[in-house]
Amino acid sequence: MPASRPLAPRVPRAPLGPLAARTARAEAAATDAREPGPAARRPGVLRAPRRRSSAAAIGVGCLLALPLLLCSPAPVAAFDLQGHRGARGLAPENTMAAFRKALAVGVSTLELDLALTRDGVLVVAHDPYVSADLARDPDGRWLAARGPLIRSLSLEELLRYDIGRVNPASAYAKQWPLQQGVDGERYPTFAQVLDLARSDARPVRLNVETKIFPDRPGDTADPATFASAVVAAIDRAGMTSRTTVQSFDWRTLRAVHSLAPGIATVCLTIRTESNDNVADRDGKPSAWTDGLSLAGHGGSVPKLVKAAGCRSWSPFWRNVDATGVAEARALGLAVVPWTVNDPAEMGRLIELGVDGLITDYPDRLRTVLVEKGKPLP
Question: Which domain holds residue 114?
Answer without folding.
Answer: 77-371
